[in-house]
């Protein structure tokens, strides 16, 4: 396909890629250029029906410069991390130097990328974004090699969005980063009952970006060092076991503990970094009261570098917990859109449950709940009408 | 005095004792009965002109039971920790068994205690309370031995309130706790320029009591274990040096880092414990902006098990920082009582300072500021008219 397109003078490929949410957190690099982490991490890839990035990459002999549009707006293409991905195709070609691919590689590139969710809201949009860019470029060039290493160069956690289901990003040992790769631990079909609720607290941009934040943590937090060296290796092995066994009790407990420990190392950073707000704390307390009422772990929260909560639950617990959230954070206005994504059944709460769990409601604190589940890795979009760029290489106008 | 009083059938003693604020934090016991800590800690004793507990202890052959009044209200005297202090006098008397002290020790005891500040607001009222109880009982019985070990049995941090100035509570090694004592590092006169501002955020009772909280931390936080074993021993030595050198930069930086690390271990506890609120975080961010504007550490915050901030500063920085706090948290109503305690001069803020530091004011978030400084240890109140109990052994009515 790439060869044929190159002969026509224009090649184009469109992919989608998922968001992932870490249950053993990544925070801190041992090499900031190569983006090599201080510890391995493990994530769940979320389904693209609810959260995805779509990216079209085009190469043409008529393009005069590399150009990039994010969510319809042209942005500077000179960012070193974007360049690291764009230029990835320029590695020595395994085929002969006179093949059509070499011609294609000499062309300038246009890229358009869109999220179906708010960017920079702590929903790991950069992970989906870079995974999608790398997937689209690989399709454009017809490359079929290990791509998670390339995605990692864009944004560390992006390498985990190169696979569906349950994904480990192994720390690796080599200084060149060639063994710091993502590996699928189990596919999305492994645990069909697992559900994910994203409690969107705020669309605000986070106060300290994760790139700057984690580097300050590496430099100043004695607790982060101990976490990376001693705590995470044990936890990673435990978490793999819990996933293998589909043990929600073990999975949920460890996910909550690891989220809390990540935020603890942010607080141990100097100056301290806070991603959790009073609303996040309300959600955490609510989850613990809910589990305590049931006598076991029915829901498990995890928070990335932002105040939004991601809550894991098994399918049969979703309706009740969603109702508990609705009662605890009564929607301000858009009550009909409070629950989005996968359908949620209705649930009646017992008076005992309400009395024990729904204490001190905070109206409007949760904007909406997105109901989703584990999903597959990046997908090729075959239908040419779905390309984000037109035949002229410019973004299509949106209807 | 005790002997003479015992012959009259009524003995009474009144003492005052100070609050202390740790700059290397105590969190976690290795022995919950003896109250032996997992790490040494270091505190500054605050001046009793602003914050103190007053306690009167009386023993009489006419009393039929032990009784206790806190802030004018009678409370149960059966609490094991109170009993540990009350019964401390029953240790084998170093003098002969027929001395008047033995007679006095057989009497029942009445105790009345009052704070000149709100209890349970995260202002270490239990430390001052137990230090004061032990001091008053020791005076009553005429004991002159090592008392910090006794105070420790009431409330761990109370042992540090048995001395003025800068006080170390050494962890100790012996299983019986006999070497887990408070020691004065430097008297309150050592650093005359040092000032303390208590930013009272809320009079609410804290959500998780420190006794229960720290034990959960010991049981569940891997980071606390590392802190106690590895981080604190280094920090304690550094902090002693900073105090010795009156090095505010070093003292302040380390105090802030250690406060943050203590709260990080609370967050690493499972279920997590939160003492810092959004308002606490605002104060932390404000302090860092203020120091960044000046290019060095002019103020240093520390937070105990509650949202109130304790801010250290040198005397020449107080007026400006207080004005910054007033502008950042404009007082809601009692504007005239916003600053209490030691006098604070007026300060004009430069437009550059305001622009760089006073961002996003939060009206009413700080109730008031208490201005104080390091002070002496427990004091005997000689004036009999100051006793909180009358000649009948009952609390005096307040005018």
Helix/strand structural class of chain A: alpha+beta
Shape of chain A: globular
Query: Can you write the helix and strand succession of chain A as a string?
Result: HEEEEEEEEHHEHHEEEHHHHEEHEHEE
CATH topology name of the largest domain in chain A, in short, is Ribosomal Protein S5, domain 2
* CA gyration radius of chain A, whole angstroms: 22 Å
Top-tier CATH class of the largest domain in chain A: Alpha Beta
Spans where pLDDT lies below 50 across 5 or more residues of chain A: 92-99
Main sheet strand line-up of chain A: 8-7-9-6-1-17
Bin the helical content of chain A: 25-40%
Query: What is the name of the CATH architecture of the largest domain in chain A?
Result: 2-Layer Sandwich
Total number of helical segments of chain A?
Answer: 11
The largest β sheet of chain A comes out as:
6 strands, mixed
Q: Give the quaternary arrangement of the chains.
A: homodimer
In whole angstroms, the N-to-C terminal distance of chain A is: 29 Å
What are the defining features of this structure?
homodimer; alpha+beta; Ribosomal Protein S5, domain 2; Alpha-Beta Plaits; six-stranded mixed beta sheet; five-stranded mixed beta sheet; globular; ATP-binding (chains A, B); cholesterol biosynthesis (chains A, B)
């Amino acid at each position: 396909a790439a060869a044929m397109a190159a002969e026509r003078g224009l090649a184009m490929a469109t992919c989608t890629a998922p968001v992932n949410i870490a249950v053993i957190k990544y925070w801190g690099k041992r090499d900031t250029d190569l983006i090599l982490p201080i510890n391995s991490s493990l994530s769940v890839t979320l389904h693209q029906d609810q959260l995805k990035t779509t990216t079209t990459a085009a190469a043409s002999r008529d393009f005069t410069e590399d150009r990039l549009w994010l969510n319809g707006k042209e942005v500077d293409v000179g960012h070193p991390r974007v360049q690291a991905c764009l230029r990835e195709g320029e590695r020595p070609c395994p085929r002969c130097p006179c093949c059509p691919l070499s011609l294609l590689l000499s062309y300038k590139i246009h890229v358009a990328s869109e999220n179906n969710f708010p960017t920079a809201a702590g929903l790991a949009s950069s992970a989906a974004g870079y995974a999608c860019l790398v997937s689209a470029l690989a399709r454009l060039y017809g490359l079929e090699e290990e791509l998670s290493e390339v995605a990692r160069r864009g944004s560390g956690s992006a390498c985990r969005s190169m696979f569906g289901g349950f994904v480990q990003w192994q720390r690796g040992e080599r200084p060149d980063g060639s063994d710091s790769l993502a590996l699928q631990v189990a596919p999305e079909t492994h645990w069909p009952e697992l559900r994910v609720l994203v409690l969107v607290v705020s669309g605000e941009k986070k106060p300290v970006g994760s790139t700057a934040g984690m580097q300050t943590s590496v430099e100043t937090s004695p607790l982060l060092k101990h976490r990376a060296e001693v705590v995470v290796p044990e936890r990673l092995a435990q978490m793999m076991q819990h996933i293998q066994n589909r043990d929600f009790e073990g999975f949920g407990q460890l996910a909550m503990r690891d989220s809390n420990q990540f935020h603890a190392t942010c607080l141990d950073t100097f100056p301290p970094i806070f991603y959790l707000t009073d609303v996040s704390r309300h959600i955490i307390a609510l989850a613990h009261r809910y589990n305590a009422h049931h006598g076991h772990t029915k829901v498990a929260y995890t928070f990335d570098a932002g105040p939004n909560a991601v809550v894991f639950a098994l399918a049969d617990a979703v309706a009740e917990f969603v109702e508990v959230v609705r009662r605890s954070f009564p929607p301000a206005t858009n009550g009909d859109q409070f629950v989005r994504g996968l359908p949620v059944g209705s649930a009646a709460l017992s008076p005992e449950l309400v009395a024990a769990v729904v204490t001190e409601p905070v109206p409007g604190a949760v904007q909406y709940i997105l109901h989703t589940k584990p999903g597959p890795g990046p997908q090729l979009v075959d239908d040419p009408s779905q390309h984000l760029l037109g035949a002229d290489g410019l973004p299509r106008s949106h209807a």
